[in-house]
Each structure stands twice: as structure tokens, then as C-alpha cells.
Amino acid sequence: MRPVLSLLALSAALAGCGASSPVHYHTLQAPAVQAPGGAVAPASFLIEVQPVNISTQADQPQLMVRTGEGSLSALYSERWSSPLGDELRGALSDALKRELGALDVQLVKPGPGAAVWRVQTDVQRFELEPGRMAQLDATWRVRPVNMKGSGLLCRSVVTESVTEEGVPAMIAAQQRAVVSLAGAMASAIRGQSPAGSASVQMLGCAALKD
């Protein structure tokens, strides 16, 4: 009798596993898009995109979506393909490489005295709201190493609209938000004022002391 009961329990467990929703994995690294003006000339410097700090509430393996005023829901069948901080670092690195024509030091080991722009990012809010918006609120720093230039400390809030239902629309909006944030960083590295836009709200910048 006991072996029969064990077999029935195993069959029930397997049936439960078969009925569970399949897990989907997502990335923040947007598909490469050719710039309107053509390829960017190679930069005379490298970039060093450091690990991204992100709030514990948002740094979860599954997608955390806002479902109401002050309410968050975990989508356990929708997960990030790697830890969210790693996803953000990789997506920022890719976008900055396309914007500046510079390689990341994670790909190319810099020689002694190599010119590098160091990028640090702290994410305060990482929001996904179905059918409404994706938002990225970050404090970031760009600082020159072994080269002339002024470092900046800035805060940006990037909001991208989500006009369609479903997880893919939210992911695409957050990918656009990361690209917009990288655009503001690239402007600062070029020595330009990281101006706001329809999606990027600049909450101020301050010069970094050496």
C-alpha cells in the first residue's frame, strides 16, 4: 500500500509541475539600432561602467510591477535573465558604447595611464506599471581618469510611456529609459549640458571635485 501511495504522490507532484506557467526571461539590453547619422567615430578614450547600485525593493529576480496606489505585485513567471543590477550595467554599457564609440574596460584591458571616463550609477526607483509607464530614477556620476575634463554628479528621472498591454511593452519602455539615461551621460562626457527631454527630467547637476 505504501509504494502505491508514494507513486500517487509523485504523479500528483509531476502533474502540478506540468500545469505551472512557463518562465519567461527578459533583458534590458535593447536591440542595436544604427544611429541616424551613421556610425560614430571611435573615441580616444575608454569607458568604465561600474556596477549599478539599486534599491533592495526593486532588485528581485522576478519583475515587480505596480498594480495600484502603493501596491506592488511580483510576476513570478516573468524574470530577469541576470541580476537586475547586472542587467542595468550591461544595458548602460551597450548604449554608451554606441553613443560615444568607446569600448568598456570590461572588454579591453586599459594600458597604464589610459584615458578613461568612469561611470557610476545609483538607482533609487525602478518602476514598471502595466499599460501606463516605465520609470527610472537615478543619481549618476561621470568622472575623467588620466585625462582632462570635469566630472559631474547628476540626478535624472526618465519616464517612458507604455501604450500597450503585456510584459513585452513594459520591457521595451524600460529599455528606452536606459538608452535615454545613457544619452544624458554621454552628453556630460562630451562636455555638453545633459539637457532634459520629453522623457528625461534633469533634477540638477553639480561639478565633482578632484
From TrEMBL:
<feature type="signal peptide">
    <location>
        <begin position="1"/>
        <end position="25"/>
    </location>
</feature>
<dbReference type="InterPro" id="IPR005586">
    <property type="entry name" value="ABC_trans_aux"/>
</dbReference>
<feature type="domain" description="ABC-type transport auxiliary lipoprotein component">
    <location>
        <begin position="27"/>
        <end position="186"/>
    </location>
</feature>
<dbReference type="Pfam" id="PF03886">
    <property type="entry name" value="ABC_trans_aux"/>
</dbReference>
<keyword id="KW-0732">Signal</keyword>
<protein>
    <submittedName>
        <fullName>Membrane integrity-associated transporter subunit PqiC</fullName>
    </submittedName>
</protein>
